[in-house]
Amino acid sequence: MSEPYQSPISPGRSWYEDSVGERPRYPALDGSARADVLVIGGGFTGLSAALHLARAGIDVVVCEAARLGDGASGRNGGQFGTGQRLWPEEMEEKYGLEPARRLFAMAEEAKAGLHETMVREGIAADFRPGQISLAHRTRYVDEFRRHADHLAERYDYPHLRFMDREETAARLGSGTYHAGLRDVGTGHLHPMKLLVGLGRAAARAGARLCEETRIEGLTRTAAGLWEARTARGTITAARVLLATNAHGGRLEPRSAAHVMPIRSFIAATEPLAEPDRVLPGNEAADDSRFVVRYFRKSADGRLLFGGREAYTSASGDIAGQIRKQVVSIWPHLSDVRFTHAWGGSVAVTMPRMPYVAETQPGLDVVAGFSGHGVMLTHWTGKLYADRLTGHGDPLAALRDLDIPAFPGGTWLRAPLLFLAMTWYALRDRL
């Protein structure tokens, strides 16, 4: 019996991999090829772009260095969220009221658009409604209350409401947190099922999907075309979308300066003996820590808990670290068995907002999703396709954001980020 497949780019084998059913394989590109658009990266952004481009009659090739789903798209927490990574209040302060409203509206369109895609393409991804956000310190309680009022009054979003400590404890199954927000306008799903479904839909539409096809270099020719080198040939395309998020390396140095990979980790328990004692309403949850804890139950009653970030390649004892966090919320789970523990690399930017840029003529980068990527990556992939098929410039609101480069250059940015994140992690405990 052969050993289970292990991603070469992400540690641990995920529960998603073992519960997705058939995970299709796509052949590596053998030889050279031509296309209208080359998409580098087979996650949500790349597959969504490929699906919508192919449906519009554009010849598109997708190259994934590992297998589809080996990166964060197939291994994440599965939560939609509402709005962008920054709350509207923060976006107003940074960008102004009208840009904040446009960005919030874009995120709502992303939410609806992903549901529409799943229905149209017949993707069953175990969607469940509801999300709660939890205040781990009393200093956040008034801020949570104001946030619910703010969304209702300024953004016409009636689905979010404040919960006092008593209701928060009832909906969580624990009195650990001081207050919360309940959002019935969003939800959570099985990300690997979504990714597999998007891949199948893109292939049906005519996109050429190539796994285990690493792009080793990009060159712009005198004729204005792009040549991408692989170990077995060259791909020539008029345009390139770099949708690798945390896995771009130095393939495009300008974007690499703005996007930093970090690792996040999740563990899955066996099906809980008393599932209604944990999140009895089956919502997803996240908390107010800077190093956020995020968790939900699967359709078969497991607790999927993410709560640790790392800024180096080390993984350590994933399940052991997460068990401590689980037990701090639900002491009765001290002896629960973990069946899976895994990690994946996500990408962050300095302001934690996406980095969207045409860094060179014909070369677009979409990266830096950390928190709301399930819906926003899908939507930015579609908007990229809309732009190329003559539907205006729908990515302008993201491309116009001020996303500064990380300080310190290639050698110092990771140590500086580590120091900053360590400081914020310490503040979480105070």
Summed up:
With 430 residues, the chain is of the alpha/beta class. The protein has helices at residues 15-19, 44-55, 88-95, 97-121, 141-154, 165-172, 191-205, 253-256, 318-329, 373-388, 396-399, 409-428; strands at 33-40, 60-63, 128-135, 160-163, 179-188, 208-210, 217-220, 226-230, 233-242, 260-269, 284-287, 294-297, 303-310, 338-348, 355-360, 363-367.
Description:
By secondary structure, this protein is α/β, with parallel strands linked by helices. Helices cover 33% and strands 24% of the residues. It has helices at residues 15-19, 44-55, 88-95, 97-121, 141-154, 165-172, 191-205, 253-256, 318-329, 373-388, 396-399, 409-428; strands spanning 33-40, 60-63, 128-135, 160-163, 179-188, 208-210, 217-220, 226-230, 233-242, 260-269, 284-287, 294-297, 303-310, 338-348, 355-360, 363-367. Strands 1, 2, 6, 7, 8, 9, 15 and 16 form an 8-stranded mixed sheet that branches. An 8-stranded mixed sheet has the order 4-5-3-11-12-13-10-14. β1, α2 (44-55) and β2 (60-63) form a beta-alpha-beta unit. α2 (44-55) runs parallel beside α10, α3 (88-95) packs across α4 and α4 (97-121) packs across α10 (373-388). The chain is globular.
Output the keywords:
24% strand, single chain, 12 helices, 16 strands, globular, alpha/beta, 8-stranded mixed sheet, 430 residues
Q: Whole-Å distance between the termini?
A: 50 Å
Shape: globular
How much of the sequence lies in strands comes to 15-25%
- Work out the number of β strands: 16
Helix content: 25-40%
The largest sheet, given as strand count, sense and whether it forms a barrel, is: 8 strands, mixed
Which runs of at least 5 residues are low in confidence (pLDDT < 50)?
A: none
Radius of gyration: 21 Å
In N-to-C order, the SSE pattern is: HEHEHHEHEHEHEEEEHEEEEHEEEHHH
Give the rounded overall mean pLDDT: 93
Secondary structural class: alpha/beta
Task: Quickly count the helices.
Answer: 12
